[in-house]
Amino acid sequence: MSVNKRQILLVGGVAVLILIGLAVGRAARDEGPGTLDAPATQACDDFAAGVDDAETKTERLALADKVNKSSAQSDNEAISEKAAAMGRSANGSTKEWQAGADDFAQACRDAGWT
């Protein structure tokens, strides 16, 4: 069985098209900061209003619960995921809580919240 130049070029062209398709598909799946819909805005507002007063674990958990109620209704996956992570950190150490709170605040800023 002999392979000619035309067959090699055809296979190469198909391979390039497949790789381009995979790259485009991956880029479409990569989540950016998302849009700042009304529930995401409410979650970010609630967080900003309460984060400085959330000193105890009880206060942190209450704030995280309030933020999560709003963010759960949002189509913004980044904010929803960071809010859930912040909620999980609320019962942890101060360092864990601060990291979760910082990540959530960054998700809000990335989405355009000011």
Task: Describe the protein's architecture and organization.
The chain is mostly helical and about 110 residues long. It has 2 domains: about 1-30; about 40-110. Helix content is about 75%, strand content about 0%. It has helices at about 5-30, 40-50, 55-70, 75-90, 95-110. α2 packs antiparallel against α3 and α4 (about 75-90) packs antiparallel against α5. It is elongated, with a radius of gyration of 22 Å.
> Secondary-structure element sequence?
HHHHH
Name the poorly predicted regions: none
Give the overall pLDDT as a whole number.
87
Please describe the biggest sheet, giving its number of strands, its sense, and whether it closes into a barrel: none
Structural class: mainly alpha
- Rg: 22 Å
**How many DSSP helices?**
5
Condensed summary:
This protein has 114 residues and is an all-alpha fold.
Write the layout of secondary structure elements.
Blueprint: H1 5-29, H2 38-50, H3 57-71, H4 77-89, H5 94-110
Helix pairs in contact: 2-3, 3-4, 4-5
Region (Disordered): 66-98
